[in-house]
């Protein structure tokens, strides 16, 4: 077993953070549609979380924001003229599409890609497959910049393989790491990769949600596993419970989270709970590990409470003493049922003995909690040294980024502000400066 650590790459919130309510199926996002947002507060909340976890000794890095608005999208559907002309015309003729071009969703880097560490892959490299996110217009164009960013950070092909997004068709709907969990005895040892999907494209008789869309297909998950060269005896595919998707569980990371040999999940997470656990235990025997399943019964926490509090959209982090900390949003303490459960959980003597909570209300109101904000990448010491170092969180980087946010970000952004061409100039100016701070010249297509 090689020495390896899990790095969490959190999304740095962009200067145009806004609540457009574009994500049907995401209850929090939809319920805050057209509210005024606070981009400065959102970015500072995210940076405070990154700094705090880095100070605790957890490996922490960031992924930079994407350029907004997407002029590639707007010009591609017929808006012409100068950048200001394009924004003015789009705001007048198609404000929902302009909002889509201004989407804040890249901050949730759990959807950026699916990642397999070198201990699991056939060629012993870390593999990334960029998510196509083709279920929603406002996310469907993210993959272009995501691939560009990942290649800038993980460009050493001796250690890393970055795959482009799967074909952008419903059959290969792929939402990235939000529907993927790795279970193992240690980050440097071979593990079991669990892919969770919502529907099967080529089996019309397979169960599927009836109200909200199932964003991940079995076919997409299988394609990623092939691209990464995963061992079939250590790969498990499981379906989400369709009725749970219809209650707002749009990704598996809203109802389950895993780390090392622990799977923390809700009773209603999977269509076949018994079969999923059996398959995981059988696969984990192949890596000489034993699954520790922490099940939350519906009688203790309902699906509705899990969704509203984002209990499972949490980070499960390994501590030096072998126990685990659960990073939860502040909303978990404000929900009576969830708060009671968490007190019981940490006192139970099980693997999770500590809670770390953060105020992430700006992200939560837009539909994403702590787990949405991070992309997990397990790296050996050599691999960590080969990636771009400018995005690794330190006190010095934190201070520079806070000053940058204070300089460039508005503290209030209303839906009408998206129609102001000045906002686009502000965003471009801020991101141009950011490339210097992070040491990533040429990151954006300005």
Overall, the morphology is globular
Tell me roughly what share of residues is in helical segments.
25-40%
Q: Determine the CATH topology of the domain at 1-108 and 373-446.
A: L-arginine/glycine Amidinotransferase, Chain A
Q: Report the top-level CATH class of the domain at 1-108 and 373-446.
A: Alpha Beta
Low-confidence stretches: 26-30
From the alpha-carbon coordinates, what is the Rg to the nearest angstrom?
21 Å
Strand content bin: 15-25%
Could you state the CATH homologous superfamily of the domain at 1-108 and 373-446?
A: Succinylarginine dihydrolase
Structural class: alpha/beta
The main β sheet shows up as: 3 strands, mixed
Number of DSSP helices?
A: 17
CATH architect. name of the domain at 1-108 and 373-446: 5-stranded Propeller
Per-chain topology:
Elements: E1 4-11, H1 27-31, H2 39-55, E2 59-63, H3 71-76, H4 83-93, H5 95-101, E3 113-116, E4 126-130, H6 137-140, H7 142-153, E5 160-163, E6 180-184, E7 191-197, H8 218-227, E8 235-239, H9 242-245, E9 256-259, E10 262-266, H10 273-285, E11 292-296, H11 303-309, E12 315-318, E13 324-329, H12 331-334, H13 336-346, E14 352-358, H14 361-365, E15 374-380, H15 381-386, H16 395-408, H17 421-438
Helix pairs in contact: 2-16, 4-5, 16-17
């Amino acid at each position: 077993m090689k020495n390896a650590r899990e790095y969490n790459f959190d999304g740095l919130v962009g200067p145009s953070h806004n609540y457009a309510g574009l994500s049907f199926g995401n209850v929090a996002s939809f319920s805050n549609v057209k509210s005024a947002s606070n981009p400065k507060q959102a970015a500072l909340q995210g940076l405070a979380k990154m700094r705090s976890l880095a100070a605790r000794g957890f490996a922490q890095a960031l992924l930079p924001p994407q350029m907004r608005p997407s002029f590639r999208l707007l010009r591609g559907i017929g808006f012409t003229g100068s950048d200001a002309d394009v924004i003015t015309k789009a705001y007048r003729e198609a404000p929902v599409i302009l909002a889509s071009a201004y989407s804040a969703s890249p901050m949730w880097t759990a959807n950026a890609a699916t990642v397999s560490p070198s201990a699991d892959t056939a060629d012993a490299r870390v593999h990334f497959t960029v998510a196509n996110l083709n279920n929603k217009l406002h996310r469907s164009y993210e993959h272009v910049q995501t691939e560009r960013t990942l290649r800038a950070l993980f460009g050493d092909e001796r250690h890393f393989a970055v795959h482009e997004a799967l074909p952008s068709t419903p059959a290969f709907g792929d939402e990235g790491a939000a529907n993927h969990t790795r279970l193992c005895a240690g980050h440097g040892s071979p593990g079991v990769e669990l892919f969770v999907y919502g529907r099967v494209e080529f089996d019309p008789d397979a169960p599927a949600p009836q109200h909200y869309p199932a964003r991940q297909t079995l076919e997409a998950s299988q394609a990623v596993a092939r691209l990464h060269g995963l061992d079939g005896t250590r790969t498990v595919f499981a379906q989400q419970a369709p009725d749970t998707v219809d209650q707002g569980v749009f990704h598996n990371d809203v109802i389950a989270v895993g780390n090392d040999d622990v799977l923390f999940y809700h009773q209603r997470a999977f269509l076949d709970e018994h079969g999923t656990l059996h398959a995981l235990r059988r696969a984990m025997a192949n890596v000489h590990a034993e699954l520790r399943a922490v099940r939350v019964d519906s009688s203790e926490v309902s699906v509705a409470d899990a969704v509203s509090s984002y209990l499972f959209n949490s980070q499960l982090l390994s501590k030096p003493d072998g126990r685990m900390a659960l990073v939860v949003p502040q909303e978990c303490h404000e929900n009576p049922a969830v708060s009671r459960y968490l007190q019981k959980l940490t006192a139970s003597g099980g693997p999770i003995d500590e809670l770390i909570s953060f105020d992430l209300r700006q992200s939560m109101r837009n539909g994403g909690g702590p787990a949405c904000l991070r992309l997990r990448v397990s790296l050996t010491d050599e691999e960590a040294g080969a990636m771009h170092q400018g995005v690794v969180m330190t006190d010095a980087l934190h201070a520079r980024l806070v000053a940058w946010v204070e300089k460039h970000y508005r503290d209030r952004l209303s839906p009408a502000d998206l129609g102001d061409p000045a906002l686009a100039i502000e965003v471009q100016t801020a991101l141009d400066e950011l490339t210097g701070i992070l040491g990533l010249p040429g990151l954006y297509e300005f």
